[in-house]
Design goal:
6-stranded mixed β-barrel, about 675 residues, binds iron/sulfur cluster, alpha/beta, single chain, 6-stranded mixed β-sheet
Length: about 675
Amino acid sequence: MGLETLHTTCIMDCPDTCALEVSVEDGKVKAITGSRDYAVTNGFICDKVRRYPQRVYHPDRVLHPMRRTGTKGSHEYVRISWDEAIGEISKRFEGIRQEWGGEAILPYHYGGSNGLLSEGGLDALYFARLGASRLDKTICAVPTTEVALGMYGKMPGVPFESYPDARAIIIWGANPKASNIHLVPFLREAKRNGAFIAAVDPWNRFSDNEIDLHLPVMPGADLPLALAMIRLWHEAGDLDQAFLAEHADGTEPLLEQADLWTLDAAAAETRVPAEDIEALARAYADASPAVIRCGWGLERNRNGGQAAAAILAIPALMGKFGVLGGGYTMSNSGAVKLDTQGVYGHDDWQTRSINMTRLGEVLTGDLDPPIKGLFVYNCNPAVTVPDQNAVLRGLAREDLFTVVFEQVMTDTALYADIVLPATTFLEQHDLRVGYGNYVVGGIRPVIDPVGEAKPNDEVFALLARAMGCDDAPFEWDSETHLEKVVAGLTMEGRPADGEALSSGRLDVLRFPDGAIQFGTIMPRTRDGKIHLTPPELGPRPYHYLTPGDESAGEKSAGEESTGGAQYPLALISPANNKMVSSTLGEFNYPTLVVSVHPADAERRGIAEGQTVRVFNELGEVVCQAQVDERLREGVVSMPKGAWRKSSVNGKTSTALCPTHLNVVGGAACFNDARVEIAVVSAG
Ligand code: SF4
């Protein structure tokens, strides 16, 4: 067959949605690189996807359906045929339905490597027909999505290409060097153009010549930081009252809370010098265009929703919209709409909803009916869901019939009764909606499925037909499915380009006069207004809660912190440049490290590379210490999604993460974990 170069789109959960070129020789993937056809991808991609062929051909790749023969977690399986697997799953699910009802079955999934054809379509139709419990997908991006929806109707934001036009840029709770790398060249260009750039993050990822100011805010304290800046501007008469009168409501509850936060109170709570908070407020106020890149790191705590709302309110309060490069960037996926009901014809799934963050409790507690059947696809809850010990206890239940539909033998797949082999995005048709870039990406098979792997839509159709469902979508092949979904897509009102998408290329949404918030793009709320205090914020909007501590209540500005002595360090678990959530952890992140500030390390006698235990009341993780002065004092960090084999005791960061929820959207609060750390003594 020789060497050929084929186009497709990266499917990973990443804002960049890269246009890819894949070199294929004799039916095997040789290399993956970025296409130059799309200016933002610009010929380069991250190291993660460059190494993706290692996943495709990894020894742990699931090549055929398997049935468990040993105890759960033991990795003892026997090969079975697809017919046997589909027959057995159907029989077991039917038995559960007869005895316990359909709600005793739980589909468990996330969008780590899913496109529109793989999640939310045929899978949802199948589980709806089964009468299964629904999944409330709260593990990520819920508080930010909820507030962006309530405040602006999920108005699309400032595109990355416009950042060089900005004169001030705040990167708040995001690490573009790990999970949005195509923003970095635009930041550098903005810097060359003279922009002031600040980063708000407990961990400084930038060098001194890349940014002007770093505010190492304590995890969970972004809200007082934003409120103190708003108070400063309010006092100085800087708020754009004319803009607010014309375009916004709900300003008063926000200003009432902001007025409680003096610079000193915010400095004490954030542990950031008051003069730095003031410097950031002044630089932002004085610059136009000014843009805030609001990330997802700031939402992963019990104040996350309120903090995201306060941050997204800033451009409105300060009148920063209406110019190219001015406003905010959150998720831009609101520019693309899919008429799911029109495509699949289902909207009648009304069973109980289960919060995915509480999986451990759901599987081990008193639920009525209990979960007796679990179908996991495109996610790895054994390492990604809070309270890992409870999750593992639940997965180990012998009376739980678990199916895991996966590409490789993940930590979760080891607990499955039946394992089904899934195609990677290089072996299937799919569509990816960009949530950073304004694109929809066509995904097409560049190689044949490895082993007996099948794509999601085919497998859910097989399962549905086996239980007697005769809905038309279950008869579609993947090409037909792609055509139907493309026909249901609109990009800012125009139809999607089916020809580009079916050939594995991007359909790029272009704004002839630029994407300008309050210029070419307006809020999508029902009345077209900004709602600065949306109902999503709950009964106590913009009120601050003691970070990390579920039992502690509201905290007033200037009030002394109490408690925390037993577990004084805040644990964060951010994205890194080796894995996309847990994807690629099978080979790309072999040794778990906990990063710790030199002062915290010295206090505990910890040296670089030493084996340490990180612990709290929920569990313990034994791993290697990495002393890093870029991380702020009082905070330690372990990467999100590391596999169990990377740590000494088979436990990872989620073993230390609490299960309490954000009031906004019932979302996970990973960064509320509080821990202590100690050297593991030899012998
Ligand atoms: S993970 Fe992100 S940066 Fe890497 S190739 Fe995919 S879209 Fe591009």
